[in-house]
Design goal:
The protein has 75 residues and is of the alpha+beta class. The protein has one helix at 3-36, and strands spanning 40-43, 50-53, 60-61, 68-69. The protein folds into two domains: 1-36; 38-75, no CATH class. Helices cover 45% and strands 16% of the residues. A hairpin with a 6-residue loop joins strand 1 and strand 2. It binds zinc ion.
């Protein structure tokens, strides 16, 4: 095998490893995303209790006083 072929092989291998690592990192980052904030945060308008509930519900009942609240907005 000639030296140029070896260098070419080396470069291709290096690029393949780099691409594989980038893909792995991207997939790992994506798999973490849904786990970051699984619950919706609610803040009771009556007793100011902060609690969480399923993300798909539109309103949630306060576990302390029973008042129905809308999701808490962070913005
Ligand atoms: Zn409450």
């Amino acid at each position: 095998m000639r030296a140029e072929h070896l260098i070419f092989l080396y470069v291709v291998l290096g690029l393949a490893i780099f691409a594989g690592l980038a893909l792995f990192e991207e997939r790992r980052r994506r798999s973490f995303e849904p786990a970051r904030d699984p619950d919706q945060v609610f803040r009771c308008q009556q007793c100011s209790l902060v609690y969480t509930d399923d993300p798909e519900v539109e309103r949630s009942r306060c576990p302390a006083c029973g008042k129905t609240n809308h999701p808490f907005e962070f913005r």
